[in-house]
Write a structure and sequence with these properties.
2 helices; mainly alpha; elongated; 68% helix
Length: 50
């Protein structure tokens, strides 16, 4: 069994979300993951400022 694709960065998730070859429901999941990754990066930056 092949391992599923794993994105390491928010921009990779965004690229998958914008891939027209993927089904709409899969693209939606990737879009949600991209948003979560971007929010995590923002939280990390804000924590450093404290």
């Amino acid at each position: 069994m092949d391992k599923p694709y794993t994105a390491a960065e928010a921009h990779e998730c965004k690229q998958r979300a914008e891939d027209p070859k993927l089904p709409a429901d899969v693209r939606l999941v990737w879009a949600q993951l991209a948003t979560a990754a971007e929010l995590a990066a923002i939280r990390k930056l804000l924590a450093k400022r404290r």
